[in-house]
Specification:
With 265 residues, the chain is of the alpha/beta class. It contains nine helices and seven strands. Strand 2, helix 2 (39-50) and strand 3 (56-60) form a beta-alpha-beta unit. Helix 3 (66-78) runs parallel beside helix 4 (103-131). The longest helix is centred in the middle third of the chain and has 29 residues, at 103-131. The protein is globular, with a radius of gyration of 18 Å.
């Protein structure tokens, strides 16, 4: 295993889009720092990624907790790892009417989807600027472009991720650094189980869900070509194109109809 290859740090790397991204980086001659909460899952994935010749460092951190995001940064620095690519993939949602959902769970989601992204991006971006080299991929969502009844906090956090990514990209344009936002739609991952969203109309038709490997490939290719953002999937491009020309109130109503529980018809 080569120790001089570039490192990609990927959060949420044990499942879904994060796993598929880590696999792509391993196959394309990157070493990996993979991060999730579950050390056992991390070790299982690390063994798999090492089969592609990657040196893999697994770090278990709970990024719902801000202090653990800071601790992750320090641990990477202490190990002398130079992160060439940062992938902020870890994210979660919660399903339900805002009046009914749990505030502490929502604040945890804000910490994961926003605070940890800010912390990791600031830390590793400064290193990238000092050496004038690096790439950042932030996993946003098509949810970033629409109001989201039944997922109001999640949509709000992803709107932040997209705006934040585009802002930072402009700030660092004089450097050899790119920032890319990946915007998937409904994808066949464990996201909906974790969000208690399996009764939503939006996820009832599993055949319409995107393959996370396809989404990851779209994100990887966009990152490597230096694009500012990519909407994954033709259907999602059409949906966002329509939402851009419709009034927000109409888009919010349409999303409400799409995302409400099947028993609400």
């Amino acid at each position: 295993m080569s120790a001089d290859k570039k490192y990609a740090l990927i959060t949420g790397a044990t499942s879904g889009i994060g796993y598929e991204l880590a696999l792509l980086f391993a196959k394309n001659q990157y070493n990996l720092v993979i991060v999730s909460r579950d050390q056992q899952q991390l070790e299982t994935r690390a063994k798999e990624f090492r089969q592609h010749g990657a040196n893999v460092i697994s770090i278990a951190k709970d990024l719902f907790i801000k202090d653990e995001a800071f601790a992750l940064c320090q641990e990477v620095r202490n190990q002398g790892i130079e992160v060439e690519v940062l992938v902020n993939d870890a994210g979660q949602g919660v399903y339900g009417l805002f009046k009914d959902t749990e505030i502490e769970r929502e604040l945890d989601i804000v910490n994961l989807n926003i605070a940890s992204v800010i912390i990791l991006t600031k830390f590793f971006l400064r290193d990238m600027i000092s050496r004038n080299s690096g790439k950042i991929l932030n996993v946003a969502s098509i949810a970033s472009k629409t109001p989201g009844p039944w997922q109001s906090v999640y949509h709000g956090t992803k709107a932040f991720v997209l705006s934040f990514s585009e802002s930072i990209r402009e700030e660092v344009k004089e450097y050899e650094i790119t920032v890319t936002a990946l915007m998937p739609g409904v994808t066949d991952t464990d996201f909906f189980n974790k969000a208690d969203m399996t009764e939503s109309k939006a996820v009832q038709d599993e055949s319409s869900m995107a393959d996370p490997a396809d989404v990851a490939k779209d994100g990887y290719d966009a990152l490597m070509s230096g694009k500012d953002k990519v909407i994954s999937g033709f259907k999602n491009k059409v949906q966002i194109g329509m939402s851009n020309i419709l009034p927000d109130t109409v888009v919010a109503h349409n999303m409400n109809e799409m995302q409400k529980p099947v028993d609400k018809d």
